[in-house]
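Q: Entry one of two.
A:
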Amino acid sequence: MITIKTAEDFAKMAAAGAVVAEVLATVREAAAVGVSMRELDTIGADIIRAANMAPSFLGYHGYPATICTSPNEVIVHGIPSDRQIAEGDIISVDAGAIHEGWHADAAITFAVGDVLPRVAELVSATEEALRAGIAQVQAGARLGDIGAAVAAVADRVGLGVVREYIGHGIGNEMHEEPQVPNYGVAGKGMKLKEGMAICIEPMFNLGGPETRTLDDGWTVVTADGEWSAHFEHTIAVTADGPLVLTAQTVSETAGDLS
């Protein structure tokens, strides 16, 4: 676990977060019927390269792409391929960037065209859960406060909460302590301290929470084939509460993540 101790380091992490936000916004705009996942990956790579930054994912334990693209029943870690987007798909896109040794990481899920009401609810509830978790990020709060707030949204609408993949600390490494589960007991767990940075990333399924990994060693899908959604932000713990470093503008907080 690392804490951000200087304004200079904070600025580096915020700069990485701004580029991640640009990647996600641009990929979402480009995603259309007939566009391939590989094309989306190229867009992300071009944006990160143009910013003179490095992708967090490319080469990470051998991962072969710049972003993760996870359609429909894929929960996380989908490798971009020649698979083309179809009408009614939902796509989760996860991206990370490194600026002078500091990481930022975020994910969104969006629909392409019209989807069934229950699928739309899946996406909106997962994003709502991210907001609920971020709202708990205060110096002195506990990790269980975040997990309990996230899980409460899933419980309310009857969605499965993925337990095998969770949020994490972030800083000079993409994945650092502490682990940040999407479930927990309010008032329990590590206390948050000013200067910490964490990633909150709820993953909800239309069906059960069970997962399986495909033969490529990366792609994680729902065990029952039901669809899944994933949202994530990098958040700094400040004296004034949560600061979302991967929002489209860093001044945005838990009340406005657009």
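Q: Entry two of two.
A:
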Amino acid sequence: MLGVTPSTVTRLISDLMDNGLVAETSHPSRHGQKGFPAKLLCLVPESFLTAGVFFDPDQMYFCIADFNGNVLSQGKSPISLRSFEAIMTQAGQSLRDQVERLGKTPDQIAGCGVSYPGQNTGELVRVQKIKQFSNWPTVDNERDLAPFFDFPVYHINDAKAACLAELYYGACKSYQNFCYIWLSYGIRGAAVVNQDLYLGHNFASAEFGGLFPKSKPRPSDQYLLDTLRADGQKIDRLSSINNSHLELPVSKQWIQTATDDLRWLCLVIARTFAPEAIVFGGTLSAKIIDEIQSQIAGTKQLGEDFLITPPDILRATTDAKPQLGAAPLPINELLNPSKFRGRIHRGYS
């Protein structure tokens, strides 16, 4: 298919094997055969290390992981100061500590993925500021993130990164096409087409929160916080919501209303994207997301005259490690064929 000779393939593979990036493994269907049976090749997971940082207004999560998503070192810490410089300084130092703890050096890390809340704008390097980061300057992520880290930095918003985690390591590894609904302080989303993250021509595809105007009640976690405060609860962060808050009548009503709204959103996605699956995840209370996903998955029909089989309604499996959504960004940028922009020269690392 590529129009190259077997000897060329052998030479290229030999280079990769000599550098410890690729290894041979036996072909299970040819086990026990005589002669020199063909062998399979596999990537060596630990030869490609990445770093991941995720933060929302309350918490920061960070990790060092290998190619297969095995987390080699990780941690989390609360965010006290929400200024851009304070958060990025905290992120950079946290990763330095992780790299040192593993006995590695920065040049052994292929890159770092960073994700945080905000809607992607018409430029991939910029993300619209959320309410909690309103005092941030206008950030060019490629230019302004780089000084805080010791390796190349890649960025995308929290929902798109979480979607990558489900594609690479989570509930959707076997799906070709799916959509992701991310529930945090806001509502965001992502779409995968042919196992590739689809961003659209303006990098803002599948931003499902825009279908729910902020001027009206919406199934966002910020609105849940506002509802609880209006009921007399003194909380201002999602991380402060506990089971006792969820048992309050106002919370139960919010969950039911949010479920109805999100069932409608699933209908819109099913009629427009026609995906194999829709995944729910986020930093909202796991108990709430579990209940919303369970109710919608149990619906026989998403709407009137919707006579085809509805998509699978799945629960994200990587929510507990949101930094694992940022960690694949260097992999996606460097090894994904759809990202290839030109010839690779011998000696490139």
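A: Comment on entry two: Residues 140 and 187 are 23 Å apart (CA to CA). The first strand starts at residue 22 and ends at 25.
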